[in-house]
Amino acid sequence: MLRGFYSAASGMMAQQRHQEALANNIANVNTPGYKADQATLRAFPEMLLQQMGTKNVPTQNNIKFPVSNPIGSINTGVYVHEMVPNFGQGDLRETNISTDLALVNGNFPDEEGNVFFTVQNEGGEVRYTRNGNFTVDGNGYLTTSQGYYVLDASGNQIQTDGLEFAVTPNGQLQVNGQAIQLGISYTANANDMEKEGNDLYNGNAGPVPAGVNFTVQQGFLEGSNVDSMRSMTEMMESYRMFEMNQRVLRAYDESLDKAVNQVGRLG
Question: Which residue, 223, 95, 92, 218, is CA-closest to 160?
């Protein structure tokens, strides 16, 4: 009975985390470049149940041998193993603002590959983002909307001296007669990238290798790839699963109450 009690409780906790992920996706439905989180559920390791006992051997000393009869396997619950972002391409939205840039995926040699803008966080560390909602700070440097410096292909901050610049489809920024290659990084497995908040990712990414095709569109923003209707439907399903586990938990609680307070009193 207690095993079922804990299994139902673990199911409630897993569905609660699933709902939190879905709620966060819905809250970021209008965040440029946001990639929806997907909760992966996994069962706890299986347990092999066996019936333990003894068997009498018809001998003069009545010897008893220990025996065990396999009953079968059972899972002890479920948990959220990890949150995996969906790196599918978001829809493009035209803004006609020169500092807005959108990455458009091309043909990648790796099935899980993806490209990112390269930025510098407040600690001076290199991070990656798909949010191209950039701006120019008071010193003329290209930054993200959170104030992180956008880097070029050499890892340097980009000086634009204002908003008058053009960006070619291959990611070259044309300013004051000079061509500056934007820092576009590629990873063969985007699922290894870790979200850090503020639209930043941390992971193993490097220069774009030959054979990786992408385009940069100026005056556009890549929208969130969250499907709001689907997320709402999944949230309702998750809530129903939570309620089902809650009913099971209540049934076990009532059974324990009867076993302790009523059966014991009859004895």
Answer: 218
